[in-house]
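Hey everyone, long-time lurker, first post.

I ran two proteins through the pipeline my lab uses and got sequence/structure pairs for each. Pasting them in order. The first:
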Amino acid sequence: MTPEPTPVKGGRRYDTTGRRERAHQTQARILGVAQEHFLRDGYAATTVAAIATAAGVSVETIYKAFGGKPGLIRAIQRFGLAGAGPVPAPDRSDEMSARDLPPQTILRHWADLTAEVMPRVAPIILLVRAAAASDPDMGDLLAEISDERRKRMQHNASRLVHAGPLRADITLEQAGDVLFAFTAPEIYEILVIHRHWSTDRYVDFIYRGLVAELLDDQRDRATPATS
């Protein structure tokens, strides 16, 4: 016979799962409101008080969860990096590159993931870049984001090597630099935001550029595998 749960004060069990879910929903709502305000009004003009009012929470709640405006921006950026799927984009990238796939296929998947993530993170990173000119906290955050992205691209370059050799005239470090450059938010800003390229054209640009810069001549002429 299954024992009855031990009652607590008031006759109700403490629902930690429900509490965590409500806290997660509240934080997601705060981040959505914060992103809207930051992108609409700019970093300097946006206040924590305005975000709290629009999100229906107290200022103290925001400071406790995120530590103020820099923490909100960081959380929005990290949320965007996860992409649109239930599995975070970096995890999907690692899982895919661990499989026995041709390098062209890996690069195509990375180009697709870049196009998935960039609409979410590029506007925020560009906001940080603009604010960094006058705000030391944003300058530090911009450097932190850039360093993390560079390390991630170096990690990706190492995984690509396991799928096959790179061009003979490129080092592993240079391969990371190439990945870092082609996935820069500034390229998305120029081609998609300002020049209104379609997502397909943007993905194709990234894919072809990575293949040309990273793989040998034989692979350069290969037909990309998109499955």
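...and the second, right after it:
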Amino acid sequence: MGESGQQHTVFGDNTFDGYGQLMEAAGRREPITVAVAHPCDAAALTSAVDAAKAGLIMPILVGPQAKIRAAAEAAGLDLAGYRIVDAEHSNDAAAKAVALVRAGEAEALMKGSLHSDELLAEVVHATTGLRTGRRITHCFIMDVPTYPKPLIITDGAVNVAPDLKVKRDIVQNAIDLAHVLRIELPLVAILAAVETVNPDMQATLDAAALCKMADRGQITGGILDGPLAFDNAISMEAARTKGIRSPVAGQADILVVPDLEAGNILAKQLTFLTRADAAGIVLGARVPIILTSRADSVRSRMASCAVAVLLAYARREAQAA
């Protein structure tokens, strides 16, 4: 079993030096068409336009045209050359953005200035949505200055209190994302508060079950271990101190959190205390969904778009195979 730090990824060979190489990998591709749902404030609209100027996406701006143009004027943006699809309100914008994907006019979705729930409600709609056999899940792709490689955290934005069945899809989606990022055999740490199975702590029971599911081929493409406490997952020294012998401990590529609150807190702690960047992507739908926050840095927003580009091209290749 090779260590993931020795694998070749889109980020480089042995160290993760930020999102630069991710942007470079995406930049070698032609831009993809992205339906941007309700980009009606300066932050959302600027994100779409900046990604277009970077050669990552060709945005279709979906929302109330007057509000989009007012946001452009406030932000000093020129919308000449960008397609605008008029919509009555945010719910209508979400529905029309999803419809563009269903019609084959866009290869990805991007959240604008609407609530994530509004967009995802249209994505999971039983008859007009973009559902697949997988659960919709979210991944943060973190650039942590104190960690030597990319760190995927899941799920900190979509599934509030996932059960074992949902966690199986959370893990598999994250592994599939890692493969697109050319992490050939991702090391997956199933996090809990402790590193031993405790019948009174559901997270530890789920961790043990997920590892056994991987042993039985119900989860494929990665190496799983858990339960692991956070320190044991990312620190070799902590793992050695506790006598943990594991191919995952101390060098995880993917951190699977017990629930949304834990994942959200972890990602924001890393962002605000270690100055990490956090790209955000939603998986499990027919197309990638770029899910950004108004608090995200420009760098994180661009990286989110870059990840969507790589996912869209991977989807093309899978369909052509």
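Reply from user beta_strand_b:
Welcome! Quick read of the second one: The two ends are 28 Å apart (CA to CA). Residues 1-8, 12-16 have pLDDT under 50 and may be disordered.
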